Structures are given as structure tokens and as C-alpha cells.
Amino acid sequence: MAKGKYIRKRGSLRIDIISGVPQLLESPLNHSIVKRARDKGLVYIEVHDIRDYATGKYRKIDDYCYGGNAGMVLMVEPIYKAITALTKQRKYDEVIFLSPDGEQFDQPMANSLSLKKNLILLCGHYKGIDHRIREHLITKEISIGNYVLSGGEIAAAAITDTLVRLIPGALTDETSALTDSYQNSLLSPPVYTRPANFKGWKVPDVLLSGDHNKISKWQDAQALARTKALRPELLK
Ligand code: ADE
Fold it and tell me: Is residue 197 in some structural domain?
């Protein structure tokens, strides 16, 4: 998918995503902020189809589960080949498996991963992947929440998007990643745009005052009040 279309600038983050359903990643990686960051060479992303590493007439990537449990399991060999094809070419900081069993993804983890050079994100699918991959090749497992997705692709897209917006230059207003919710463990203050009055629903006067000091104090107070009301656990 989109191989060769994007450049990689020296020092930029490289993310290789290995997936059995690469089509699921097409839209999130080819629009908006992620697309612009790829166009600018701020991040290099390549999606690898596990099926390209499968053998046999049907290029099978999954098989029945030993022990008779229900559901198909992604096979060890194609994933082994996909990962080692990459790790032979360069050193990876982490080989990450997306899984509900993993460490919970959050903003501090995103900040730390966005500073890495080379990452592999492996997406599981169906019932899971052959456990030998997790034992021998995976260095970190990440979950995006306590629920089960059909596969890791949506998690990989969420993580990639979160990392990309942290790369300097990825956002047009570079300061805006710093004011994202969670970046300082607080939720963002409310934002408004024109019109100032819609059917009697008014934008707070302070935001129209032009007094930047006052606006900034109001925004800080709002961020704190919203966090206390909606997500008090973030203040602990
Ligand atoms: N794959 C399936 N569910 C997942 C989750 N919650 N987080 C990451 N990867 C997953």
C-alpha cells in the first residue's frame, strides 16, 4: 500500500505495520494530519501484508487452534518472515503487538514512543496469533482499552495517529499538540468558533475580550474544573 510514495527524512520516525487486513489501515493513514506528515517526510509509515509472506497455493495465514478451541489463529511462519525481513534491514526500538492483554496506551506512553526511531506494530486478528511470536519476537504489548477489537488494525491506527501529532511540524499550529487533553494530565478547555451567538447560545464573553492574559487564566480554570468534574482520577 502506497509503497515508495513517501519519503523519509533523516531522523524521522519510521513505523512498520504488519497486518493480515491492510485495507483496514488505508483511510486513517492516508488522510488529514497523518497524510500531511507523511507527505512532509516527518514520519515514514509502511504497511506490510502478512499474506505476502505466506506460502502455498492459497497463501494461508491462519490455521486451526491446537487444543480444539474455537477460532482461527495467525500462523507463526508468515509473521516470523514479515518481522525478520524488517529486523534484518534496521534496528527496531520496539516490536509491538497490539493486544487487549497489553500495557494500557496513554499519553505518556505516546510521548515516549514518538521519540523512537523505528517501530514495528503487529496487528493480531481472528482468535489471536501463535504464541511463539509473542514469546520470541515481541518486545512490548500494547492495549488501547479494556475491550476486544476484531483485530489490532484499529489500535495500530489510533496509536500511529497519536504519535504522529506529537512530531514537531505535523500540526500546522505546533503548539496545539501541547494543549491537547491529557498532555498535562488535564482535559482541554472548551473551544468555540463563529458565530458568537447561535440562536441565543453565546460564546463566553471572556473569549471575545481580546485580553490574552484573562483568556489564558479562564482556559486554565476551565481545564481544571472539567477534569475535576469529568475525570477526577487524572488529578491523582
Ligand atoms: N486487539 C484487539 N483488541 C485490542 C485492544 N483493546 N487493544 C489493542 N489491540 C487489540
Answer: yes
- Look up the domain containing 96 and give its range: 13-164
Site to probe by mutation for ligand 1, drawn from 149, 154, 160, 161 as the one with most ligand atoms within 8 Å of Cβ, is 149
Residues 219, 125, single domain; the answer is: no
Q: Which three cell numbers stand for residue 160?
A: 500511529
Do 155 and 191 belong to one domain?
Answer: no
Cell numbers 475525570 correspond to what residue? 231
Q: Which of 109, 131, 164 is the last residue of a domain?
A: 164
pTM of the model: 0.94
Find the helix packing angle between 153-164 and 107-114, rounded to 10°.
Answer: 70
Taking the C-alpha atoms of 102, 178, 7 and 112 in order, what is their torsion angle to the nearest 10 degrees?
A: -30
Q: Do 60 and 128 fall into the same domain?
A: yes
Ligand 1 midpoint to CA 149 (Å):
5
Give pLDDT tens digits for 59-113: 999 999 999 888 899 999 999 999 999 999 999 999 999 999 999 999 999 999 9
- Chain segment 183-234, per-residue pLDDT in tens: 788 999 999 999 999 999 999 999 999 999 999 999 999 999 999 999 999 9
